[in-house]
Design brief:
Chain lengths: 113, 113
Amino acid sequence: DAGITQSPRYKITETGRQVTLMCHQTWSHSYMFWYRQDLGHGLRLIYYSAAADITDKGEVPDGYVVSRSKTENFPLTLESATRSQTSVYFCASSESGHYYEQYFGPGTRLTVT
Amino acid sequence: AQSVTQPDIHITVSEGASLELRCNYSYGATPYLFWYVQSPGQGLQLLLKYFSGDTLVQGIKGFEAEFKRSQSSFNLRKPSVHWSDAAEYFCAVGTGTASKLTFGTGTRLQVTL
C-alpha cells in the first residue's frame, strides 16, 4: 500500500539495549523526519534527512542515530536506550520544495523499562 | 529562534457549538503556518496551511484559519463542531531551510453531546 509505515507499532525494551525503529515511505519523498511526542512538549524533531545519505540533527538528537541509504527508508536507532526515551515516535516525509507539508506515519510507542 | 504557543491545553465544547483554537507564533520573517489534527492512536493529518495571499484559509473537515500578522496569530475555527472532531490539534510553523517544522504543544479538544 502507498504511504508511510512504521514498525514496530509497539515496543518494550530494557535500559541499555539497542533498538531500531523503522520507517518506510512509498512516495519517493526527498525529506524524511523523526519526531518524538511527549506530554507537554508536543512534537520535537530528532533528526531529519534531505535525501539519501544526507542527515542532520534536529532539536533533540542526543542518544539517537539515523541512517538513510535508500530514499524510502529512514531507520532510527537508540544505541543504548534510557527511560527518558520512553515516548511515541513519529516518522514523516515531504516532497522537496512542497512548502513543508509533511505526511506522518502512525507512530511507534516505545517503552524503556 | 522560532516558536509556537498554543495557550489552551484542553478545551471542551458542546456538539454544534462554534470552536476557536488559538495559536501564536514567533518568527522574524514571513511564516509558513500549519494546523494538524491527531486522532487518538493515530499520526498527524494536515488540516490546512498558509503560505501567502488570502489570510483566511479553508481546510478539510470544515475548518478554517485566519492569519493575523499584527497579532502573530493563526487561530483555527469551525462554525459547528461534530463529536468526531474530538482530537488533539497542533499548530506548526515552517521556517527557513530544510522543510523543518516547529510544533506547538497541542490543544486537546473534547466534544460533549
